Amino acid sequence: MKLRIDQRQLAEAAKRAHRRLPNNPLQPILGGLLLETDGDSITLSGFDYETSTRAALAADVLEPGHVLVSGRLLADVAAALPAGPVDLIADGNEAILTAPGTTFTLPTMDRRDYPALPEAPAPAGTVDGSLLAAAVVHAAQASMPDKEAAGKLEGLRGVHVAADGDRLTVSATDRYRIVRHQMPWTPDGDAEGDLLVPAAYLAATAKQLSGGPVRVSFASDIAVAALANDTLTVTSRTIATPFPDIERLFLDPAAASGWMRADAGELVEAVKRVALVNDKDDQTVVLSFDSDQVTVQAGINGPQGASSIGVESADLDGFTASYRAEWLASVLAPIGGQVQVWFTTPTKPVLIRPVDDDGAATDNYRAVCMPVRLSR
What we know:
Blueprint: E1 2-6, H1 7-18, E2 32-38, E3 41-47, E4 51-58, E5 60-63, E6 66-70, H2 71-80, E7 85-90, E8 94-99, E9 102-107, E10 125-128, H3 129-141, E11 158-164, E12 167-173, E13 177-187, E14 193-198, H4 199-209, E15 213-217, E16 224-228, E17 232-237, E18 258-263, H5 264-274, E19 284-290, E20 293-298, E21 305-310, E22 312-314, E23 320-324, H6 325-332, E24 338-343, E25 350-354, E26 365-369
Antiparallel strand pairs: 1-5, 1-7, 2-3, 2-6, 3-4, 4-17, 7-8, 8-9, 10-13, 10-15, 11-12, 11-14, 12-13, 13-26, 15-16, 16-17, 18-22, 18-24, 19-20, 19-23, 20-21, 24-25, 25-26
């Protein structure tokens, strides 16, 4: 293989492809990046049996070929090369990278020992990458930790992405919180589907691809889903256990016994402020309603805190309920502006939705938060 490539583009591609490789792979070859030419471009690929990455970039290919080298070493070397054109020459034993005044020689790995990379399914549609990243990263925080998810709960350790018409839905739950984001997307024809990928993997992928349009490929027959932009494609193995039907768990506002509207940022700050007196992460805050204000309280048998903010409410005078501070703050976090919260009893979950400028609750985001016992 012999080609010339721009240093900046090589460094960026190597960084993107190497970032998802394991730091200490059980098999050293899984720490490698596979470089393959294709016409007037080169693709850098990495694979650890769970996630694969393919970073493609233009190159002046003089002799086609392929080579497998250490991903960490290639990323470090490419970043250290001086700016400008880089010549890459590789044979079966070594890969030589040359820039004006600088030469690096990297040992190669045996291509025959490298696992075959999964093929990405055909794209089902396109979505704004920044919207997708924000939704997936937030939803991942509400997924169940891997160590707690087993058996029938396996699906709760993932983030679920589903298409329905011109809307894309991103959801997650740990049984105590449910979050559901919706955003516009452009389907390819009538293509619909869904994917369920481990939360940490999908969040990392969505962040890598944010900043432009992202093509979404739903799970194929070999249980692989993919996200891609113009330069990077990432495939991930999906979770076999189905994601639960969360739609039925959202409270019908008509069945609520009362509701409140408040500035979401003020409510989050009040929760975080009084939670400073809690000495454990799983301790709670108590919301108490009186006329046109809610008082958030924390602390028992020791330091205590209380903070009141103004609200608009209906049928909540004297209502008191307790929530884990971290859970409540996390489900409120994506809302900028007014939030509406519907309540039934102090022992049943609440429904949380943003409010638009016209005072109507929107459907772009919904959340559920479970209360906890007032004993704290």
